[in-house]
């Protein structure tokens, strides 16, 4: 067994245990394998072990891997910071985008999404903590942004996403995830049919699952540590 194959089976156990601890069905939690800074070959190994959804943060890096992996039926998720001059590539080459936090970008994704492709899945990235400079829509603007984006053609609003401040403390981790889950419920009560809560990474997936995550985004736990010094890590 390769490391990636072994890692995926350990992750399935972690998901199972977290679900057991809170009475959830593991089938409700899907795994996005975050492959940024890892080569196409590593994705191929994970695919052979049954993984289908992969997340990338950098457009050029992702397009190059997509070319190398054209023969595989992969579901591609864009989870990185969106530069508005890259929205055409993102709208044509991905199935989902998790990092939408402003209307301008959503309008461009909508305009560039080819009509012959299925609607682009969208999660709104929410800035939970008041950390200047971090991406994400502020909670007080979330409902407005959701209704504006929901009205755009060729996009399908699926839910919310967050990257909370890193913490080793499980109750601190749960605090942020509970906040996002609460916002998701509020938005649903306004009439939006959201089915995705994109939260939890390698270090905090248990806390995220207990608070209702339906999609965990794991890089390190799947592929091992990312090579250092290859550019910004977000
Ligand atoms: C890199 C990244 C991840 C994965 O992080 P790990 O700690 O390696 O699991 C998840 N989500 C986003 C948005 C990322 O940029």
Overall mean pLDDT stands at 95
Hetero ligands: pyridoxal-5'-phosphate
CATH homologous superfamily classification: Alanine racemase
Encode the helix/strand succession as letters.
HEHEHEHEHEHEHEHEH
The count of β-strands is 8
Beta-strand portion reads 15-25%
Q: Output the strand order for the largest sheet.
A: 7-6-5-4-3-2-1-8
Structural class: alpha/beta
Question: Can you give a write-up of this model?
Answer:
Helix 4 packs across helix 5. The longest helix is centred in the N-terminal third of the chain and has 20 residues, at 3-22. The chain starts with a helix and ends in an 11-residue tail after the last helix. It has one domain (2-223): Alanine racemase (TIM Barrel, Alpha-Beta Barrel). The chain has nine helices and eight strands. The chain has 234 residues and is an alpha/beta fold. The chain has an eight-stranded parallel beta sheet. Helices cover 42% and strands 16% of the residues. Pyridoxal-5'-phosphate is lined by residues 34, 36, 57, 79, 163, 201-203, 217-221, 234. Pyridoxal-5'-phosphate (PLP) binds at residues 34, 36, 57, 79, 163, 201-203, 217-221, 234.
């Amino acid at each position: 067994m390769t490391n990636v194959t072994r890692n995926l089976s350990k992750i399935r156990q972690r998901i199972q245990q977290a679900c057991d601890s809170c009475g959830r069905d593991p089938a409700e939690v899907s795994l996005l394998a975050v492959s940024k800074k890892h080569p196409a070959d590593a994705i191929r190994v994970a695919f052979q072990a049954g993984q289908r959804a992969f997340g990338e943060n950098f457009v050029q890096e992702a397009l190059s891997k997509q070319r190398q992996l054209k023969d595989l039926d992969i579901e591609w998720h864009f989870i990185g910071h969106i530069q508005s001059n890259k929205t055409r590539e993102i709208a044509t080459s991905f199935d989902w985008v998790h990092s939408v936090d402003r209307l301008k970008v959503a309008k461009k994704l909508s305009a560039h999404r080819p009509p012959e492709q299925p609607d682009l899945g969208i999660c709104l990235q929410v800035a939970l903590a008041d950390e200047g400079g971090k991406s994400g829509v502020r909670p007080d603007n979330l409902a407005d942004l959701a209704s504006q984006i929901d009205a755009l053609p060729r996009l399908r609003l699926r839910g919310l996403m967050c990257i909370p401040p890193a913490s080793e403390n499980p109750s601190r981790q749960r605090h942020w995830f509970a906040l996002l889950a609460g916002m998701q419920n509020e938005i649903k009560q306004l009439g939006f049919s959201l089915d995705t809560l994109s939260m939890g990474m390698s270090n905090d997936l248990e806390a995220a699952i207990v608070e209702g995550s339906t999609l965990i985004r794991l890089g390190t736990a799947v592929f091992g540590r990312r090579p250092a010094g290859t550019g910004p890590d977000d």
